[in-house]
Amino acid sequence: MQRFIPARRVFSETKSSLRWQQQRCFSQVALKEVDKNDGVVPKMPPFDYSPPPYTGPSAAEILSKRKEFLSPSIFHFYNKPLNVVDGRMQYLFDENGRRYLDAFGGIATVSCGHCHPDVVDAIVNQTKRLQHPTVLYLNHAIADFAEALANKLPGNLKVVFFTNSGTEANELAMMIARLYTGCHDIISLRNAYHGNAAGTMGATAQSIWKFNVIQSGVHHALNPDPYRGIFGSEGEKYAKDVQDLIQFGTSGNVAGFISEAIQGVGGMIELAPGYLPDVYSAIKKAGGLCIADEVQAGFARTGSHFWGFEAHGVVPDIVTMAKGIGNGIPLGAVVTTPEIAEVLTRRNYFNTFGGNPVCAAAGLAVLNVIEKEKLQENAFVVGSYLKERLTALKDKYDLIGDVRGRGLMLGVELVTDHKLKTPAKLETLHVMDQMKEIGVLVGKGGFYGNVFRITPPLCFTKEDADFFVDAMDYTMAKM
């Protein structure tokens, strides 16, 4: 395993870095090229598409307009921001026509692939016929999609409420749980992210995503984090903290429990084995409902299952979803049982754009593409292969503290000290920026911003996986 220089020297090359360059672990595809000419940058797999010439404003002009007319809260990646003007499947193109491998997928949102023809056709055809009539009139698009979506869920999860985003979906789910149980208290996890509205900000448990506004009725349990958590991978011990919260932090009854199966914004953290079954049992005994936030892990992304919660052997009372549901279309949903759904009839509940025909047509097309192109199987096969290659890279570099996740929802955490697990913040930014120069786009997350979030479109190939790992290897070898 190779050791890294201190963060203050991370941007300078040393004699030892030159030695490391000769020890890179490239894929078999690239080995021949490296043997002939050591130091050759990894090459992107071929792709049969070239975008039309771009004639719009430059990156500098767009950045200037953003600064003047958009909220200052909007930030961007990279020292030199990327102007993305075209996309096809797992690739994006900048203003100069340069191609990039998209390993972030619009933050786990592009499921089928950028501008997938089936999804585009569904959107265009529906838009030409009827764009927005309101759900107060009948239209088959929303009903067809709701039926198809309900058929993908277990048990009696058959009633669908459509929203425009994951935040809206989680807000609605939390309100339903409180109405149904008559309780206000909800238990979430530390390090969780569930949205940025009034209720969901309360359920979110990272200070960097929380404003100092009233956020009531949410208790945050110990995060069952196998890498940084105090109990390692012993899920049952973390679950006891939920029972303690119920007994010592509430009246003994709760409205519900909300969690992701893999924390996305939190750093691609997969919950410790055995945790969810024990917690679900404790919540039900306290009269609460179990909410599965599938905004990022859902829609076949984890490969082994269509929904993230299925890997834990549990069936929630409410499931929320967004992102991959529409392949980039603003769409979300809450799915629950008929009995629980009845609570919203106590008053008027309405969402102007929820279930819009264009969005519903896109959602149905996404489900059809996932099945037709066997994208869940691809996520499992390619994701497993990618994780194996990343794990091999971890054995080579001390900078990599952990490789985790399932399918095409993976995380690579960088640390400067394996024992102390000191977050490698500067190194993460450097590797990310250098990989972009090679042609690879990847996200980052975690509370410390030191975890690579790898969530590409589900059409990602083994050749793409090789190129991704080779690019990371090449970059780290030069540090």
3D structure, described in words:
The strands form 4 sheets. The chain has a 7-stranded mixed sheet with strand order 4-12-11-10-7-5-6, with helices on both faces. It is globular and about 65 Å long. The protein has helices spanning 15-21, 28-36, 59-69, 105-108, 117-129, 140-150, 166-181, 198-203, 235-249, 275-285, 338-341, 357-372, 375-396, 425-438, 462-477, and strands spanning 84-88, 91-94, 99-102, 159-163, 186-189, 218-221, 256-260, 262-263, 269-270, 289-293, 318-321, 332-336, 400-406, 409-417, 422-423, 440-441, 443-445, 451-454. The protein contains 15 helices and 18 strands. A hairpin with a 4-residue loop joins strand 14 and strand 15. By secondary structure, the chain is an alpha/beta fold.
Largest beta-sheet details: 7 strands, mixed
**What percent of residues are in strands?**
15-25%
Described by the principal axes of the CA atoms, the overall outline is: globular
**Class by helix and strand content?**
alpha/beta
Give the mean pLDDT: 92
Counting DSSP H or I runs of 4 or more residues, the number of helices is: 15
Number of strands: 18
Low-pLDDT windows of residues: 2-37
Q: Cα distance, first to last residue? A: 14 Å
Oligomer: single chain
User: Portion of residues in helices?
Assistant: 25-40%
Radius of gyration: 23 Å
Strand order of the largest sheet: 4-12-11-10-7-5-6
Overview features:
alpha/beta, 15 helices, 18 strands, five-stranded antiparallel beta sheet, disordered N terminus, seven-stranded mixed beta sheet, 37% helix
